Amino acid sequence: MAPFRYQSAILGRVIEVEAGFLTDYASVPRLPVLYLLFGDTSHKAAVIHDWLYHHHEVCDEATANRVLREASEADGIPAWRRLGIYLGVKIGGTPSWRADGAA
C-alpha cells in the first residue's frame, strides 16, 4: 500500500498512514446480504480506521469509529451505508480494538 494522509476534523490533525501498513480493509462478515450492502466499499476510510485501531495513543475506540464515519463521508459513501458501517464497528469492533492494541 502506498502512503497517504487524511485530515480529520474530529481529531484536529492529519493522519499519516505509512507505506506497507497492513490492513484488512473493511472486515465485513461474508454473509451474502451484509457483504453486498457494506463490503468492498470505503477502502481509504477502512485503512484509516485500521491504522487508528493500531495506534491507541492517537484516540480511543469510540473516536476511531467516528473518524471512520467522517472519512467514509469524505469518500462519498452514501449516508445509509456510512451508518451501517459505523454501527457494524460500534457493535462488533471491540475485540479487534483490544487485539490490535495488545500487538
From TrEMBL:
Source domain of life: Bacteria
A Pfam entry, by short name: DUF1353
Name this polypeptide is given: DUF1353 domain-containing protein
